[in-house]
Every structure is written in structure tokens, then in C-alpha cells.
Amino acid sequence: MTTLTFEELAETLLPNQAIAGLDLGTKTIGLSASDLGRRFATPRPVIHRTKFTQDAVVLLAFAEKEKIAAFVIGLPTNMDGSAGPRVQATRAFVRTMSEKTDIPFIYWDERLSTVAAQRALLEMDVSRAKRKERIDSAAASFILQGALDRLSMLARASDETGSDFS
Fold this sequence. Notes:
The protein is an alpha/beta fold and 166 residues long. It has helices at 6-12, 52-66, 85-98, 113-123, 128-161, and strands at 18-24, 28-34, 41-48, 68-75, 105-109. It has one domain (6-161): Nucleotidyltransferase, domain 5 (2-Layer Sandwich), CATH 3.30.420.140. The chain contains five helices and five strands. Strands 3-2-1-4-5 form a five-stranded mixed beta sheet, with helices on both faces. Helix 3 (85-98) links the parallel strand 4 and strand 5 (105-109).
């Protein structure tokens, strides 16, 4: 299982499973995790990238510790919606990770997530040095919170129509 749509994810999630948000960069991977009720995204420490195999070991250990059922990974499309080189790198990362785990990935349009994270950190009066340290995980939280809100919307819609989404 490589990637899922949100509808497919909603059908496969079980109670008390968390979801992780990923903001994939060239030097770090921003991380966030949901609570087991999948209502809130919380930033976690970044993974400082070394080589893929080591990054995968750290990411999968995080997934096991946090009871992660799916990864929501930011897809860095250009503002006009076209796919740039970072989109290709993100898709390649997911393909390679899929060889190492059965945990599914869901792509999320991450346009402006870093801008939103920067604004939030500025509003919290976080120093410049701390912002640099926290920006990737804050962006991962924005990505994940958007996905959690989407899943919640799907659940409400299915309750109204009587379909099976949890």
C-alpha cells in the first residue's frame, strides 16, 4: 500500500490510531503527530536528514512509538498548481518508504504552510533562532491539522448520508 485518498484513509482507520504529518525538506523532515482521537496536530522534533536508510529508521521508530496509522506528507506544488522538482523528490521519498513499511501515505497540498507556520511562530513571539529550529515541525503541524480537519469533515458528511466513513 503506497498512497491513499482521504476517502480510502477514512474507511481504513481504526479507533485510537494516530496520524503523522511530514514536511519533507532537503536537510530536515518536519514532524507532527495527532492525538489518538485525531483532533489535534502537535509538532514533534525534526529529523535531521543524513542518508535515506537512517532517515527511514528514525521515521519508522517514531511511527511505532506514536502508534501512527498513516503519514500525511506535504506535496510542495508551485503556486500555479504545477509540479516542480520538490514534488518529484517527495514522490520518490514516498515510493522508497513504501518498500520499507505498510503504513500508507496521503499527499496534502502544502502551499503556504511554511508561511502560515512562520506567522504563527512570530505571533507567539518566538525568537529568530528558535523559529529556524521549529519551522519545519510547525509546518508539518499545519499540514496535519488541515488533513485532520478534512477527515473530520468526511466523517460528519458520512454521518449525514449514512455511509461507512468513521
